[in-house]
Write a structure and sequence with these properties.
With 205 residues, the protein is of the alpha/beta class. It is built from eight helices and nine strands. The strands form two sheets. It has a five-stranded parallel β-sheet, sandwiched between helices. Strands 5-4-8-7 form a four-stranded antiparallel β-sheet. It is globular and about 50 Å long.
């Protein structure tokens, strides 16, 4: 029995999806169905917290990993950046250098428990909020998303990790895959994410 641990923010948690509960929950149901049909057991934990940055991740990842450690192996997904890159009162919540340092620290902590680590790309945002300050006082831009995704790709190369590219799967159809806040996917968007991630978890079933 392996554990799949999905760390992230509200997009990992599945916010705004009242139908499927988000992409991780779709994967959870799929893994259970496969197990019932005779596949290997993969227990999926959705550890997403709305609004979290990599700073929050570092505070909890050692404890979460220790508490949910399967001796038969763990698969870890780390999905951050959408909050880190947001600019509030003129500064990033977490600047690019700190973002990279935080992800590297999280990866080192994870390696004590898991060999299979996946870094999840940041999603595109809707053009009507690109570079616009929204009600929460946060401003996000495509330019920053691309910059932070590059950091994630670099880390994957440096540390021989796997990159889950949701950005490319979304970018052409983003206006129909995002909810009206322009940041979170809608049901259709979460379905696309699950489709992209499915071949990844298939390997463990």
């Amino acid at each position: 029995m392996r554990y799949g641990l999905f760390f992230g923010d509200s997009i990992t948690y599945g916010e705004y999806d009242g139908v499927f509960g988000g992409w991780v929950d779709i994967l959870k149901r799929y893994a259970l169905q496969k197990y019932n049909e005779g596949s290997n057991e993969l227990i999926i934990y959705n550890l997403g917290i709305g609004g979290e940055t990599t700073e929050g991740l570092l505070k909890r990842i050692p404890y979460e990993m220790a508490a949910r450690n399967s001796p038969e192996g763990n698969i870890v997904f780390i999905g951050y950046g959408a909050n880190d890159l947001a600019v509030k009162e003129g500064t990033h919540l977490i600047n690019p250098e700190q973002f990279k340092a935080n992800i590297l620290t999280a990866v080192e902590q994870t390696k004590q428990y898991a060999q299979d680590i996946y870094l999840v790309s940041i999603l595109p945002i809707s053009k009507n909020i690109d570079g616009v300050m929204v009600a929460s006082g946060k401003l996000r831009s495509t330019e920053e998303i691309l910059k932070y995704n590059e950091i994630l790709k670099e880390i994957c190369i440096e540390k021989s990790l796997n990159y889950v590219d949701f950005y490319s799967g979304f970018v052409d159809d983003k206006e129909i895959l995002l909810s009206k806040d322009g940041v979170h996917p809608n049901e259709k968007g979460y379905g696309v994410m699950a489709e992209i991630a499915l071949p990844v978890i298939e390997k463990y079933l």
